[in-house]
Recover the amino acids of this structure.
């Protein structure tokens, strides 16, 4: 397991049938990354037992309320729960001027800093990097500048084959040198090439979040082959005529993107408040891309 | 029944054990009045099946996040649900400058107006009046300017006693004249005083909301004799030493206020996140004021 995704909300703008609006937490390499933060996100974190002490980076796809209204309450509560790590908010540049006055008024004594990291949602670029991971923007098509996010693990180092190390009598210090790039020289002077001791590294995993967006094939080169694509599917086919005005997608459209981008798995979410049941959205998606799952509030997905 | 109170959240600043933070809706005379509006209030309205189409006035006790962070999401969602009545927000004057930039950005196309009605929380005054009701502020003692709210029905007109009307042969038009203030003159010229036809009016009901506050006997003259007092009870006696720093009350303190103000019923709420169970708070309050209820998220209370 490289990634653990916790879906906090699967509703669209109007909450309904117990569905909260968009928010999720991606856990990887001992860090929690939040993606979007709708009104009520702090309740979902508590209800689902997610500790937010490891949270350091929050990525906001776009400045519609159902993706960012929960930030101020989350930050305020984190302060009361003695969170100490600085919080970086990656978002459209406008968010800082909207949120900072509220932070100054309601959260003037935070035990951590809130640092805005603005990015241009319409440009594909890398907006976060640490030693294990990069996060790239995925420009989407919506009524305001909107970006998806591609979380991609960096390639890990090849593994050392213990049996071959033992066979050639390689000591601990020499094994470390091989790992760092050296060949191995035996006592008789024979040089064994480094490649002899190596096996393939654990494959790097990748996760793409695309919400909210109109059907857009422009994202395909960016998300090509990802392990999991989380794509909005606001409407069923019967309401597909609504996509153009609202700039949302159908479940079938999401599946079509998944198929064309050769992703391994698709999760659909952001369901219109008109659907108490979602089976037909899942059916419509699976006709095009069989390996599709319906997101649900509280769902935990490991890959 | 004159009032119907729906409690949406009973937690304090940090949400816990499924308790949302402070918000409630008081229904009376075909209108809904919201009191406080914590983060997530819109979800509670939907979960509890409260239609917000009758909502016109929102009263905010003070500018701590757990009493007002839900406003922007509520207003945004009301717009999507085709609410059309103007919304009046009665609050500390600072709220307008904090909320207006967000309204301008996220809710620029509302089908209704949002009108701020600022008041001074530290002055006892009448801040709302219609033909059935007044709302008065109740200055409280908290770390920021805070006000409770006293909803008081106006005295209703005396009822006409139908038997006496019939006995004296009073017609419909004459009965209306009696109701409006006239005496009745019989065919023989005898004047029957108006009071002869009247019976006592239905008693006016009153409701006081006091949250958040340190124990304060200064509120007693204002809330004297109310039908229902909703008073915060953040702490049990074992944590009473915390009241002074946090400027909150104990359950016992709330009960003491209820007893000294001769209210008919007490509801306690705003429970600290430290209490998974609340029985001991109820016990401590009932020792002092037996007619006490524990508020619970979703509770509906008619009086």
């Amino acid at each position: 397991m490289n990634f653990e995704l916790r879906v906090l909300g699967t509703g669209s703008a109007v909450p309904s049938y117990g569905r909260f609006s968009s928010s999720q937490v991606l856990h990887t390499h001992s860090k929690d990354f939040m993606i979007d933060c709708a009104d009520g996100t702090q309740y979902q974190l508590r209800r689902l037992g997610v500790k937010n002490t490891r949270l350091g980076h929050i990525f906001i796809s776009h400045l519609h309320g159902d993706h960012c209204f929960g930030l101020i309450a989350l930050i305020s509560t984190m302060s009361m729960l003695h969170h100490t790590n600085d919080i970086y908010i990656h978002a459209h540049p406008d968010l800082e001027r909207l949120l900072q006055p509220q932070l100054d008024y309601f959260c003037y004594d935070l035990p951590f800093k809130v640092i805005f990291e603005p990015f241009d949602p319409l440009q594909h670029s890398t907006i976060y990097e640490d030693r294990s991971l990069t996060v790239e923007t995925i420009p989407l098509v919506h009524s305001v500048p909107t970006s998806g996010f591609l979380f991609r693990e960096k390639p890990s180092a090849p593994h050392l084959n213990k049996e071959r190390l033992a066979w050639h009598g390689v000591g601990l210090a020499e094994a470390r040198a091989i790992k760092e790039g050296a060949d191995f020289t035996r006592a008789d002077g024979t040089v064994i090439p480094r490649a002899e001791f190596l096996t393939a590294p654990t494959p790097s995993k990748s996760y793409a979040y695309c919400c909210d967006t109109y059907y857009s094939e422009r994202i395909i080169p960016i998300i090509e082959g990802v392990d999991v694509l989380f794509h909005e599917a606001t409407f069923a086919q019967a309401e597909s005529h609504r996509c153009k005005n609202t700039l949302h997608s159908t479940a079938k459209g999401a599946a079509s993107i998944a198929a064309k981008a050769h992703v391994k798995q698709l999760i659909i979410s952001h369901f219109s408040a008109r659907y108490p049941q979602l089976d037909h959205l899942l059916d419509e998606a699976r006709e095009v891309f069989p390996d599709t799952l319906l997101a649900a509030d509280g769902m935990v997905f490991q890959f």
